[in-house]
């Protein structure tokens, strides 16, 4: 088995002052990457600032003989995103790898959700990914190389009680990836989305204590590090992982049925009477090749 090495690569990991991000950063550095440890150092629900979180991980990496630099900007603004990437450029001269990982929770049932809860969660997870990824892509394009990870969640992919704000942001990241992968493929930039699971500060009190040792943050590292490596040539995929179990999750479409003939109006009753054929997932296929809209137009165009 040949080793996956990242010598000479420069990685930016947002929110890597603790939790899962810290584990990514330590592993990337141990494989030779120079790492920007970005962390605003907020509380579990996004309040305050604490630079010691990022500093602590930088020290760990340096103590182990690696190279790292701290950045304390928030991912939630364009100014912050630009500054995070500028830290990589000023210190290490380029950006090869970006893991969008920073975030926090503000869980409330839908009827109790405030505008602030909604905006803050969308800002850190969804807008934050835009704010850091746009300057990163500009830098990656210069070297015709990049590996980008968006961090989604099963809460967005499948749903979770009390997390409409978080779920919307996390599913929105899949939307960014689906289009971005098409725009950056020509620059050898691969964009993938992961949904990790870990007993971390974020999930303390949500995930039962009894299984905390089975879902350590570090169990999310191997697939993520592979996706950040040159060997990974896949783009636009969604991966779910949980305590050493990994899968590919996809948006699927069933075969459907074409009722239209480009002229006649289709009555609602005809849809009702064909519902079985419309909802069937027999022979369903993943739609992740970027030109899937043509699947729907094909029957009309033939
Ligand atoms: P964590 O709370 O341990 O770490 C998140 C880090 O992000 C913290 O160090 C925090 O200070 C930092 N951060 C928060 N807002 C920031 C901002 N505006 N700018 C820069 N840094 C900021 O959480 P954990 O569990 O390590 O989560 C990491 C990522 O994985 C998050 O995106 C989370 O939504 C996602 N995730 C985690 C799951 C889990 O089971 N722990 C499940 C699914 C997704």
CATH superfamily of the largest domain: NAD(P)-binding Rossmann-like Domain
Sheet bearing the most strands, described? Answer: 8 strands, mixed
Structural class, please?
alpha/beta
Average pLDDT reading: 95
Number of helices: 10
Number of strands: 10
**Cα shape:** globular
What is the fold named in CATH at topology level of the largest domain? Rossmann fold
Helix content: 25-40%
As for the number of domains, it is 2
Q: If you compute it from the alpha carbons, what radius of gyration comes out, rounded to the nearest whole angstrom? A: 21 Å
CATH class of the largest domain: Alpha Beta
Order of helices and strands: EHEHEHEHEHHEHEEEHHEH
Describe this structure in words.
- The protein is built from 10 helices and 10 strands.
- Strand 6 (189-195), helix 7 and strand 7 (238-242) form a beta-alpha-beta unit.
- The model has no long low-confidence stretch (mean pLDDT 95).
- Helix 3 packs parallel to helix 4 and helix 4 (115-143) packs parallel to helix 6 (164-184).
- By secondary structure, the protein is α/β, with parallel strands linked by helices.
- The radius of gyration is 21 Å and the shape is globular.
- The strands form 2 sheets. It has an 8-stranded mixed sheet, with helices on both faces.
- 40% of the residues lie in helices and 15% in strands.
- It folds into 2 domains: 10-249, 3-Layer(aba) Sandwich (Rossmann fold), CATH 3.40.50.720; 252-301, no CATH class.
- The structure holds 1,4-dihydronicotinamide adenine dinucleotide.
- 1,4-dihydronicotinamide adenine dinucleotide (NAI) binds at residues 14-15, 17-21, 38-42, 46, 53, 74-76, 101-104, 124, 151, 153, 195-198, 200-203.
- 1,4-dihydronicotinamide adenine dinucleotide binds next to helix 1.
